[in-house]
Amino acid sequence: MARYVDTNILVRLMTNDVPELAQQAIAQVKKARPGELIILDAILVELFFVLEANPHYKFPRDKSAVVFTGILSIPQFKISEQAKEAFGLFKVHRKLDFMDCLLIIAAGSDPQAIVSFDKDLLKTASV
């Protein structure tokens, strides 16, 4: 049975800021089968936002990338191919946030398919 992971589980796993909840999150992951725990793209966007913008964490971009790499390495998690491609852009294009990168991938890297005032986003989409 597929189960959907909330952002708070990922935050606990990646920060261990509340050790008892982190241990519960680890237990949930360990008892799951490979690919059973689905992480929606929206959850990943929220994860990047929480880790980078929340004053409690204030992760620099590079640390967020390490966190995401860690998530990708856990076989129980299933992440969309779009999110994986967006992460590739995120690592290369430092002016774009993860949501921008998802938007570019969803638009098929066609700047004409994106409606935005963000010049960096549109410029990257046209590459």
Report what the structure shows:
This protein has 127 residues and is mainly alpha-helical. The chain has two domains: 1-79, no CATH class; 81-127. It has seven helices and three strands. The chain has helices at residues 7-15, 19-31, 41-53, 61-72, 81-92, 98-106, 119-125; strands at residues 3-4, 37-39, 77-79. A three-stranded parallel sheet has the order 1-2-3. It starts with a strand and ends with a helix. The mean pLDDT is 92.
Condensed summary:
The chain has 127 residues and is mainly alpha-helical.
Helix and strand topology:
Blueprint: E1 3-4, H1 7-15, H2 19-31, E2 37-39, H3 41-53, H4 61-72, E3 77-79, H5 81-92, H6 98-106, H7 119-125
Parallel strand pairs: 1-2, 2-3
Helix pairs in contact: 1-2, 1-3, 4-5, 5-6, 6-7
> Which structural class should the secondary elements be placed in?
mainly alpha
Summarize the main sheet.
3 strands, parallel
Q: What is the tally of helical segments?
A: 7
Number of E strands: 3
Tell me the strand order in the biggest sheet.
Answer: 1-2-3
Give average pLDDT, whole number.
92
Count of the domains: 2
Low-confidence stretches: none
Termini gap: 40 Å
The proportion of strand residues reads 5-15%
Order of helices and strands: EHHEHHEHHH
Share of helical residues: 55-70%
Which word captures the global form? globular
Using only C-alpha atoms, the radius of gyration works out to 15 Å
